Amino acid sequence: MIRISLCLGWLGLICAASCESAIAQDAAPTAPNIPVPIEASATAPAQAPAVAPIQVPAEAPAQATIIDLAPPAQAAVFISDGGIGAPRADWTVTPSPASEQPLDYDSFIREVLQANLDYAAQRYNVDIAKAQLGAAKLLPNPTLSLDGNRDLTYHDKYATGTNGEAALLRQVESRSVGITETLQLGGKRKWRVRVADETYRAAAATVDDFFRNLKIDASEAFADALATQRTVDSLRTAAAYLAELTQAQETRFHDGDIGEADLIQTRLDELQFRNDLSKAEDDAEQARLALSTFLGRNRGQTRFIVKGHLEQAARSYDLPTLISQALVNRPDLVALRHNRDAAQSSLVLAKRQIIPDVDVGVQYAYNGGVALNHPIDPTPAFHQLDLTLSIPVPLFDRGQYGVSAARAQADQAQVQLEAAEMKAEVAIRTADEQYRSALTRVQSFKSDILKSTQTLLDARRYSYEHGGSSLLELLDAQRSANDIQQAYQ
Questions:
Q1: Residue 358 pLDDT
Q2: Fewest CB within 10 angstroms: 16, 60, 113, 482, which?
Q3: Beta bridge partners of 367
Q4: For residues 453 and 461, what is the distance between their CA atoms, to the nearest angstrom?
Q5: CA–CA dist 52, 392 (Å, integer)
Q6: Residue bearing the bigger pLDDT, 208 or 3
Q7: Contact present, 292 and 300 (Cβ < 8 Å)
């Protein structure tokens, strides 16, 4: 299992830290397969054309399991031609600086609030909704129209006029300017603003709920870092005692007081505890690294030294009051209520959309005159003012399907709210049961289990040192104490 974990860890490291672009190389029809053995050598050349499989020991199966890291040849068909998906050369990525810093819970949560990148990204949703609210309040832009015409046929042609003199044959040429505005009837703007306002409030409540869940996740991560560090401290104490015991056993073995079996048993238990300590230290380091994911971009390589206590004073509360307050104030439920109100306002807006809008326009035109001796149509110049009114005729689309869809969305929003309220109440009751059960277990540990375990361990150690207990009884007591301490964490 350790060798398999080593191989899987190596594969994970390759996948996480690979900086080479996955682009098919046309020059090489097939990529060389690089076999990675399950067992890895402690020392290897810096560069080698190929890694030869290491032979498995005699007690293992004769055929070693080889993992091939090279992609299959047919995988190249999924890679874009010409490296379109490759990173650009002008991109700048700055790694975070390495540092070490003590960190307590209050400082951690404050920095999460100020620097968490996911939370910062979520806050932009509020800015977007606010901008959409401002856009909903705007009136439609008027339309400006400019018009003009020119007589291309007779613009510069002359003929004999009615008075026998030369007459310009040009017909009437006009120039006009107009403006048209859409009048939204039926209170559409009012309900459009109301929909946008409810959406804006829902976005703000959603961000609050995101931070609520973020704070829960961050608190759990911090508590996990504290607990894993406590486990490390406990295992270090046990490993130190077993190291001293092993030295004492070696002395007693050389003096002929114990047999070789007892010495080997002590060494094995010491090695097992050291392996457990090594794994616990890895877990503690991973828990500390996980704290960086809640903070800003420059925290990727910060090694935190967590400070604090896991012990919390018991809290008293009235469960029905807590549930009623949560159903009113929880941000996710608040957001769903705003979404429901927005959906209901959208239904009203859909009904008002049935009322057609009116386009009202005014246009001024100047019509150039035609020569008064024009042989066909003498016309003097004149000014003209036009008023236009256009209304769409709802002959086919009367908004009936839009109203049906809006009504279904409003009903859906109400059902979603009721479902979320039910789940929230069940979650609170479940959390209450878990909290009370945890209080009972912690009290049992503090009042009896931890004290009795330590008393038993001290008694076993004293008894073994004075020949009253066997080695197995001492080691069993040490294992039990370690297991109970980890369970308490």
A1: 94
A2: 16
A3: 174, 382
A4: 12
A5: 80
A6: 208
A7: yes
Residues in Cβ contact with 403 at an 8 Å cutoff, skipping those fewer than 6 apart: 347, 350, 351, 354
Q: Which residues contact 72 (CB under 8 A, 6 or more apart)?
A: none
Query: What pLDDT sits at residue 166?
Result: 83
pLDDT in the model for residue 93: 61
Rounded Cα distance between 123 and 117, Å, is 10
CA 113 to CA 120: how far, in whole Å?
9
Assign 80 a pLDDT band (cuts: 50, 70, 90): low
> Positive or negative, the Cα torsion across 152, 158, 159, 160?
positive
CB 173 within 8 A of CB 369: no
Tokens representing 349?
């807006």
pLDDT at 61 over 60: no
Q: What is the pLDDT of residues 13-54, one digit of tens each?
A: 444 444 444 433 444 444 434 333 333 333 343 443 443 343
Identify which has the larger pLDDT, 486 or 132. 132
- Which two three-digit tokens encode residue 312? 């919390």
- Residue by residue, DSSP assigns 113-182 as HHH-HHHHHHHHHHHHHHHHHHHHTSPPPPEEEEEE---TTTTT-EEE-TTSSEEE-----EEEEEEEEE
Backbone torsions φ then ψ of 329, nearest 5 degrees: -105, -10
DSSP per-residue letters across 64-128: PPEEE-SPPGGGGGGSPGGGTTSPPTT----PPPEEEEEE-HHHHHHHHHHH-HHHHHHHHHHHH
Strand-pairing partners, residue 383, are: 366
* Residue labelled with tokens 């998906």: 85
Residues of the chain with pLDDT > 90: what percent?
35
The CA distances from residue 276 to 283, 330, 454, 460, 489, in Å, are 10, 42, 20, 22, 15
Distance in angstroms (rounded) separating the CA atoms of residues 171 and 169: 6
Contact between residue 258 and residue 252 where contact means Cβ atoms under 8 Å apart? yes
Residue with tokens 């540092």: 99
**Is residue 270 within 8 Å of 242, Cβ to Cβ?**
yes
Q: Are 5 and 38 in contact (CB under 8 A)?
A: no
* Interval 219-239: pLDDT, tens: 999 999 998 888 888 888 888
Estimate the crossing angle of helix 105-115 against helix 188-255, to 10 degrees: 140
CA-based nearest residue to 298, from 111, 138, 479: 111
CB-count exposure of residue 97 (10 Å: 0-12, 13-18, 19+):
exposed
List the Cα angle 136/141/145 in 5-degree steps. 165
Write the single-letter amino acid at 310.
L
Decide the pairing of beta strands 166-168 and 158-160.
antiparallel
Residue pair 36/66 in contact (Cβ under 8 Å)? The answer is: yes
Given the structure tokens 């608040």, which residue do they identify?
A: 334
